[in-house]
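Dear colleagues,

As part of the handover before I leave the project, I'm documenting each prediction I ran so the next person doesn't have to rerun anything. This entry is a single chain, and its sequence is reproduced below.
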Amino acid sequence: MLVRDGVTISGRPKATGEERNMTTDGLIFVGEPWHADMEQLAQLGRVLAQPLPGPFEDDTAAGAELLSDVAANVVAVPLTEEWVLACAVHNFHCPEGLRTSAALAATDRHRQRTMLPGHRSPWWEAVSSERMLVVKMRASSLSSDLLQPDTVAANRLAPLVGDLHRISYVIEERVPGAQYEINGVVGWGGELLHHWQAVKQTWSAVTGKIDAYEPAPMMTQIGVQMLRETIPALGLAGCGVNLEWRQDKIMDVHARLGEDPREIYTATWAPEGNPAATLIELLVAQWTLRAENDA
């Protein structure tokens, strides 16, 4: 275990020079997933478990700078949402890993809608405004909930997205029916290495948030098909993937595994526990095999 400038890096020590390209020390897994057994993760690969450094208006750049300091020329894999963009920026000078274009497509809703297969998106429209908004029917005085810009998310994207302040909102068709999600691991070549079973989300009519999950094994095949269409469309590689859908329409895609902090969530789709360990194990194994084949 190495502590540098208050940052704890656990797992295998850093390699140097060409050695990084031939060993699993050429990888670093970044973030601390909810309920993960971090000791187990550290036994499988090199892990940097720390929150994204602030201030939040510059945290993507700060995170990438931290990675360059402690893991120069090492491919970074995000384990949590907050590290997705920083890892991708860091990987710019690395031969493999999650690229900035793919990370943006999994973070910026406007870019995601433009890149997903057309038949998988509901109707949507980009809205140009930096103001707080409400949505009203043309012949009605009734208004929707207040739409307010997400300052943290906007500041995280701002250095990387030139049209962020021109397109602040994406308005989407409300697709009826149950909402499902599926999680998987994307290999270094953009292939789906592994997937877990699909789960059904139950939404509260009072809070408007998810309040329960249940296994949905009969929907897994549909979820896998959507993953196989989405992964190449967004250009994902060397990361986790979380996809949510209703009917045949994709609601959201992320370049990491699902993140609900409640223990019941992970237990529903990964009853074996610690899905981040599976992600690390699979990516390290594929990385090692490819290095051996190249030797």
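The first strand starts at residue 2 and ends at 4. Residues 275-294 form the longest helix (20 residues).

All the best with the project,
I.
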